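Table S4 entry, FAT3 protein.
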Amino acid sequence: ISGYSLVIQARDSGTPPLSSSVTVNVDISDVNDNSPVFTPANYTAVIQENKPVGTSILQLVVTDKDSFHNGPPFTFTILTGNEEEEFTLDPHGVLRSAVIFKHMVATEYVLCVQAKDSGKPQQVSHTYVQVRVIEESIHKPTAIPLEIFIVTMEDDFPGGVIGKIHATDQDVYDVLTYTLRAEQKSLFKVNSHDGKIIALGGLDNGKYVLNVSVSDGRFQVPIDVVVHVEQLLQEMLQNTVTIRFENVSPEDFVGLHMHGLRRTLRNAVLSQKQDSLHIISIQPVAGGSQLDMLFAVQTHAGGFYKPAYLIQKLSNARRHLENVIRISAILEKNCSGLDCQEQHCEQSLSIDSHSLMTYSTARISFVCPRFYRSVRCMC
């Protein structure tokens, strides 16, 4: 307990008795009676041979139960095991290489490290660090080409994570880093540690080919990343049809079915090869395992097929479509829960272009806006 607050009252013996009170704060001063604590108690680390001088090997973690003026900053010292000065230890507890290690010269070092706190008198503790020197990388990283499809409303892309590069390396201790060509950083970024691709706001319609590479410190490998950006027209929303699929997650749909379904749909509903099929959004149905896919078809002249025409085409081709994926329903109007006379209802569709959903797999990523339906009975 670091302190107490007491209210003390003095009361006299007169008639009537009179009194007054005062608050007394008692602070408990800290005594430096706790040593620093290493977490974990001892460390093991590896470094590959031929790494440059200054390579980070390990970050020491130290805590102290005393108050702040009796704890950090800590003073770190290598007591034993560093007689040839192969290592340095900075004030933040980062152990670095001071030489270029060779696996044939030595395969293991054991260091005794001391941490001293800032109290008076100072308290100390010790840990042992085992450092193994392993052979340098012999395998190049391997990465899967990534294709990203982004659907957004006209000039209204907010930016965000649009996919992730999947890369592996057969060298167990290799740490992979990702880089993007400098001149492309005005539109995209790549997280150097995990390969996540971030698009900045305001992307224009079109195709972008990103020059991304992955490195294990010795080998650098290029990765094919292609980004397709499609901007929706307001007229599309008035001519959409929804196909509802059974028992499929968005990621499985994107990774396993979307490419084949797009090809089958084109064959089923397009009258001419110049017509364009636009997948506007995919979205899980609340409370189940169903998935809605929203799409529209644009004619080569620039107009759009009416939903009734598309539904007729889809109904005729449903058997072929189900060779790709199981369909629950083909929806033009969704009047579920409404008791409309003669079944007449009106549906409106709205797109939230600032609420993007990213469905990412190893090879394909699909980024689309969230959509909302509202229905009402017509008079």
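The chain has three domains: 37-134, 142-231, 232-378.
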